[in-house]
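Is this the right way to post structure tokens for a design question? Let me know if I should format differently. Anyway, here goes:
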């Protein structure tokens, strides 16, 4: 009979690797599940943007304004904006102060104030590469800070008209982008949120 496989007998690199693998396999699956966090964030890699041709396929996103139904959405993605820009987002009108909800689980990576988006929030999906952007907010919900983990449906802010929305033009500007580098939260390949939100809301 061979002696037990222990660190004392694991002298070579291959033997030590096999021993480590055996320890991992010996941990019961239920113990791993209990120890893992509810919201998991994938590690980012340089080629993350090419891992999947449809990063939002099957994603159950929530319409991020409370009380808005799928049939009320209008696709404004290709609408023109100043300086020859395309909108590259969806505008969701609602009364001032209407709660803005996290469209998915994620982490707040940036709270930002600017001349275009006004009071805005950038959220990173647990996949580590999908970024949600909420703009023209009247303000943030209590407890919303950079680094905060939020859950799908959690109130993160309130509909407003800050930035270049125009006085009284209360709406949420919501966009989705796939980042090539999550540290550059302002960049990314934009995706049309309209079909994603419609599909998720009508399942």
């Amino acid at each position: 009979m061979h002696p037990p496989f222990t660190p004392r007998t694991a002298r070579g690199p291959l033997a030590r690797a096999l021993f480590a693998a055996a320890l991992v396999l010996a941990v019961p699956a239920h113990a791993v599940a209990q120890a893992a966090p509810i919201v998991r964030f994938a590690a980012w890699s340089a080629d993350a943007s090419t891992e999947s041709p449809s990063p939002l396929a099957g994603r159950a996103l929530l319409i991020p304004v409370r009380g808005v139904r799928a049939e009320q959405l209008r696709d404004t993605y290709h609408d023109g904006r100043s300086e020859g820009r395309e909108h590259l987002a969806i505008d969701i009108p609602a009364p001032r102060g209407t709660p803005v909800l996290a469209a998915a689980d994620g982490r707040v990576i940036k709270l930002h104030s600017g001349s275009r988006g006004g009071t805005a929030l950038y959220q990173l999906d647990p996949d580590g590469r999908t970024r949600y952007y909420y703009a023209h907010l009247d303000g943030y919900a209590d407890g919303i800070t950079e680094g905060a983990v939020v859950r799908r449906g959690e109130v993160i802010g309130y509909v407003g008209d800050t930035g270049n929305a125009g006085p009284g033009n209360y709406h949420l500007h919501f966009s989705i982008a796939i980042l090539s580098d999550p540290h550059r939260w302002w960049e990314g390949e934009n995706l049309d949120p309209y079909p994603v939100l419609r599909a998720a809301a009508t399942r």
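Format looks fine. Someone answered above. Worth noting: Strands lie at 90-93, 99-101, 106-114, 118-124, 130-140, 149-150, 155-159, 171-178, 189-191. The first strand starts at residue 90 and ends at 93.
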